[in-house]
């Protein structure tokens, strides 16, 4: 096994959202009010990502709540525009936004940050494959889901993974505090659960970089156990649990029939899996997604 399993790693689980807007750009709530809201709703960390600027986070963190500086950048490749969430950057480079996407991602990393491609539903695999330097993509974005019904991007993720691109899957809110009479509030809808030794910025970032987290907009993944023969998952009650590999021959879906629900499933390894990820769906349609567990060398050239 070539990637780490957060369920077999020492530490505690920390819940966080890495994509949030405030009154510093087009959000409704102040940075302090947004931090307070997430803290009150059981979150442990929050990254403020106002558009093309880094919002001042001074005084927003406490012993049990970590606020991370960040931004959401508009960048370009050829004719295609990208939104990129930059986590843990102190400032926006003066040449940004509007610069070429891979240069922007390199600048983010030079500053000690990490880049996530935001709401990639409207991008294609051909837009994503040539770009180098992003840690992952948003496989669920609450705001885009509630506003436009285009918040899920697991098809993009599978297309990247099956081509050997090792990128992690993030659920985020892109919260603006936007809602109306037919649209739920976009705060606290999608999150990641990070396994880390403690709630410090270096520890949380290190675990995110290593893929020691899973994403969810509802269910809980309680455990994933990997042996030479099987991959076993335990979850909160779900309607289906799917093991997703690079093709049909390395994927299998378990669906609860009738009124009963599933809380575990076991995949018997074929020996041909390049990777496996686990996707758990409740009867209401909420999802949790593990990161891919890589079993083969393929894709090493694409390690980001
Ligand atoms: Zn955003």
Per-chain topology:
Elements: E1 12-17, H1 31-40, E2 45-48, E3 66-77, E4 80-87, H2 101-110, E5 114-117, H3 125-128, E6 136-141, H4 142-148, H5 154-161, E7 168-172, E8 191-196, H6 201-209, E9 213-216, E10 221-226, E11 230-238, E12 240-244, E13 252-255, E14 262-268, E15 275-281, E16 287-290, E17 293-294
Parallel strand pairs: 1-2, 2-3, 5-6, 6-7
Antiparallel strand pairs: 1-8, 3-4, 4-5, 8-9, 9-16, 10-11, 11-14, 12-13, 12-15, 15-16, 15-17
Zinc ion binds next to loops.
Quick structural gist:
The protein is an alpha+beta fold. The protein has helices at 31-40, 101-110, 125-128, 142-148, 154-161, 201-209; strands at 12-17, 45-48, 66-77, 80-87, 114-117, 136-141, 168-172, 191-196, 213-216, 221-226, 230-238, 240-244, 252-255, 262-268, 275-281, 287-290, 293-294. The protein contains six helices and 17 strands.
Description:
The chain contains 6 helices and 17 strands. The chain has 2 domains: 10-217, TIM Barrel, CATH 3.20.20.140; 218-304, Immunoglobulin-like (Sandwich). The chain has 304 residues and is α+β, with helices and mostly antiparallel strands. The strands form 2 sheets. Strands 1, 2, 3, 4, 5, 6, 7, 8, 9, 12, 13, 15, 16 and 17 form a 14-stranded mixed sheet that branches. Strands 10-11-14 form a 3-stranded antiparallel sheet, with no helix packed on it. The site of zinc ion (ZN) has 5 residues, from loops.
Entry keywords:
binds zinc ion, Immunoglobulin-like, globular, alpha+beta, TIM Barrel, single chain, disordered C terminus, 304 residues, 14-stranded mixed β-sheet, 2 domains
